[in-house]
Specification:
It is elongated and about 95 Å long. The protein is an alpha+beta fold. It has a six-stranded antiparallel beta sheet with strand order 1-2-11-10-7-8. A five-stranded antiparallel beta sheet has the order 3-4-5-6-9, with helices on one face. A hairpin with a 2-residue loop joins strand 3 (about 150-155) and strand 4 (about 160-165). It contains ten helices and eleven strands. The protein is about 45% helix and about 20% strand.
């Protein structure tokens, strides 16, 4: 409908041209031409409005010349021109005012979005004990930086603890679940000795949130009940040169060691948070993997590995990681991955993306 609205002024001008060049040229079509800049101002900026006005003026001159009306209908033609000029000037002023107001409102929304991002997904410190870290999160399609993905990295007395998760669902219900899960993680990482208990706190917080009466609207409730689960991965980097993982249905992290990438697959797959009652499985226990000095560990959401190109091919994440120079910092490494993702999808993400990368310093 918006595209049709943009085409309407030019369609009217061409329609008037067709009428004036036909045997029905006796019809008075001048008033129709004066509407073209006004209609253009509703859907296009000042340049589009001026283009519509210029086309209307050209049609007016062409038809008057073709029908030899300059001698007999000069006053009518001049009146049409004056009306077109007045409407065009008013339309350009209106279009410019509307555009300025919309830009001001958009800037305000962006400032609010940035503030919300810093509250929900705050920046990851560059240095966390024995690791360097960087993170990236991008919501699909909107250009915003808040979606259904979550991440966090915190240094504790037990070591550096990280979380990456993906909330199923969309809109405010997903963002609410992100805030709940991150709040539980940030609180429990400092006093829970076992990393699996941190995961249990996140699961319990999400269950409590979904059980609160009136927490979700009638429109959101069916989606929450049908897709109300969260995949999550918690990693702990202690003083020993290992990384401990608790994976609840999340894509396995990738470790880059000596230029080769290895996926840290869980030995015992566990159900996502929210599906504990539907899928039976053993209690969550952390699994340890070597994480040596100089290694890089990437935690990510499925929006990264499921990104497709025009040929419907998935992003070859391990191969891309192996091609990136080892001299890059964590933030530069993520920037390289981001550019590869943009090139692969031609800047058309279909799912939220979150990545957090850590380098082992010692």
């Amino acid at each position: 409908m918006f595209t049709l609205g943009q085409c309407a002024p030019f369609a009217i001008a061409l329609g008037v041209l067709a009428i004036e060049l036909s045997p029905a040229h006796d019809l008075v079509t001048g008033p129709l031409l004066t509407t073209t800049p006004a209609l253009a101002a509703l859907t296009m900026g000042p340049k589009g409005t001026l283009s519509a006005a210029a086309l209307a003026a050209a049609v007016n001159v062409t038809t008057a010349t073709y029908n030899q009306s300059w001698g007999t209908l000069t006053q009518l033609i001049i009146g049409n021109f004056l009306g077109l000029i007045v409407v065009s000037v008013a339309s350009v002023i209106l279009s410019n005012a509307v555009r300025t107001r919309r830009q001001s409102e958009l800037d305000q929304v962006r400032r609010i979005a940035v503030a919300a991002q810093e509250v929900v997904l705050r920046p990851v410190p560059e240095i966390l004990g024995p690791v360097r870290a960087a993170a990236l999160c991008l919501a699909a399609g909107t250009g915003a930086q808040i979606g259904g993905d979550l991440y966090e990295a915190i240094q504790t007395r037990y070591g550096v603890r990280l979380i990456v998760g993906d909330v199923r669902g969309k809109g405010l219900s997903a963002i609410r679940a992100v805030a709940v899960a991150l709040g539980a993680f940030r609180e429990s990482v400092h006093y829970e000795d076992e990393v699996e208990e941190v995961m249990n706190h996140c699961a319990a917080a999400l269950r409590r949130e979904s059980a609160v009466p009136g927490a979700y609207s009638q429109e959101e409730l069916p989606e929450v009940l049908m897709e109300g689960f969260t995949t999550a991965l918690i990693a702990q980097v202690p003083e020993e040169q290992v990384v401990q993982l608790v994976n609840r249905g999340h894509p396995p992290p990738l470790v880059l060691h000596d230029g080769r990438v290895q996926a840290l697959m869980p030995a015992s797959p566990l159900p996502p948070l929210g599906l504990e009652d539907l899928v039976s499985g053993p209690p969550a226990r952390p699994e340890s993997y070597p994480f040596l000095t100089g290694d890089r560990l990437l935690l990510y959401t499925d929006g990264v590995i499921e990104a497709r190109n025009r040929e419907d091919e998935f992003l070859p994440l391990p191969e891309i990681m192996e091609r990136i120079s080892a001299d890059t910092s964590p933030q530069e490494f993520l920037d390289e991955l981001h550019q590869a993702l943009i090139r692969h999808t031609e800047d058309c993400l279909t799912d939220d993306v979150a990545m957090i990368l850590i380098d082992r310093l010692a």
